Amino acid sequence: MSSPEARLYRASWADGSLDLVAGAAVIVIGAGYWTDLVVASIVVPPLALVAWQVLHRRVVEPRAGRVEFRRERRERSRRELGWSVGLGVAALVAVLAVLGAGVAARGAFPGDLVDALPATLLAVLAVVAAGLTRSPRFAWYGALLLAAGAGAVLTGTGPGLTLVLAGAVVAATGAVLLARLVADAREDEA
Amino acid sequence: MDRAPVLPVLDPLVHEPARLRVLVVLAMVESADFMYLLRQAGLSRGNLSVQMSRLEDAGLVASTKRVVDGRVRTSYVLSPAGHEALRTYRAAMREVLAAIGD
Prior knowledge:
The structure holds 2 protein chains of 2 kinds. By secondary structure, chain A is mainly alpha-helical. Chain A has 8 helices and 1 strand. Chain A has one domain. Chain A has helices at 4-11, 17-34, 40-64, 71-106, 111-114, 117-133, 136-155, 159-189; one strand spanning 67-69. In chain B, strands 1-3-2 form a 3-stranded antiparallel beta sheet. The longest helix of chain B is centred in the C-terminal third of the chain and has 21 residues, at 80-100. Chain B is elongated and about 60 Å long. Classes of the chains: A mainly alpha, B alpha+beta. The interface between A and B is medium-sized, with 17 and 21 residues.
């Protein structure tokens, strides 16, 4: 069983704002692939980060309050972020190596497998988020995104559609969590 | 006959459940604002406000106020005296619990 401090830390990520913004970002990225606006996958992540900060400050903090965790926790998070980024890069290299092996074997880029790449990269980010926030639901999002990647390959619809669907699930989960927070805060006011 | 109490006396300022909850939360974090403590303590605004004033008057917590988006937000930290009070409380409580046995 985790310590009370660890439970407090995990609870501080349970407001749904990150899920909502990340899900919306995945939807926009997926729509970008769908409409050949692939540049969305570069533009959207930094915009999503800013949007999350604004949403958190304007909607979450006035209702859930603001907490600053102790220096040891912040340093541990920073260390884990470093490890997570390293693992993410290693996973990316592994995926590219598999694709490269496909090129070597078939003499051409395996186009169908490329369709799984965006969802796979986003799945790695979701797993990183699960570790950093100590929230298992982000690992489920990772599994969902992997399934979206597999779906893109199996259905041959390209990466866009399945990304939009997966993003919708993530965003909807975030919206439910955030709505619950807002409703609870309204109850507290009453 | 020795009339001194056998069991340690628990500090009522710390022992009161609502205040104890707030103090323990503040012991686990660097700082927390009023809204955060409100949700963690599960108290009404009025009750929490009274408890925080008592803790602040006793020097166990310290507060700072800042304006965010036009609203005043009060942030609290556990003072060194607050940390010491919790340590003393923990030691006393251990003795009390040990006396109960299994």
